[in-house]
Protein: Endonuclease V
Amino acid sequence: MPEHWLNPPDLAAARAAQVALAARVVAEDAHGPVRLLGGVDVSNTRFDPENRVYAGIVVLRFPELEVVATASAVRRASLPYIPGFLGFREVPALLAAWEQLAVKPDLVMVDGHGLAHPRGLGIAAHLGVVLDIPSIGVAKSRLVGQPEAPLGEAPGAEVPLAWKGRVLGTVLRTRQRANPLYISVGHRVSLAGAVAWVKRAATGYRLPEPTRQAHLAANAARRAATMAMPPLTG
DNA sequence: GCGACAG
DNA sequence: ATCTTGTCGC
Structure:
């Protein structure tokens, strides 16, 4: 795997890497039975001169949705947050956490977009292709595209997310009176399959359990590290 | 040139 | 993403 797929020298190289990686995305259900669902997320500390990012990964048994494994890792981000280049900022830390995982999941839900990205390589697709594992993008807001029609207010309501005449994902309402989620293919999963998995992992909260638990894990890792820091004196 | 812009 | 407790509404 080319080094610049994770740490490009500049944005031009990052852009080229995304195009190359996007060509490797498999938008079809190419995976075995899913007994273990994974959830990944990253937490940031604001005003941190060191640009540290805390990655959290959780593994849940399906269909029970009980957490059976957790892992976390801290890395210094090589880039600030730039819309469209989130993967380069968070994937390295996620890979470090992945290595710490005692048991690997059969499919992972990522906090962010997959194919619903300007170059078809949101963080979910980025992570999926680099690890070559089934992945799904579960974003809380849109990056590109617009809903093709008004979204129903009932949980389960969904509408295609279109951009430039193409359907890149699905806008899905998982909870009444809560903003919808933006689901898209990450890798080795079809859009229909991605939406189905998110629904199967829904528990009444806005976020599906894998991503919800990953968010908690990432925050826990950050707080633990922060509280371990020696107090400033003088 | 201007506005939009995952986490 | 993050700063932050209680509070209003379903």
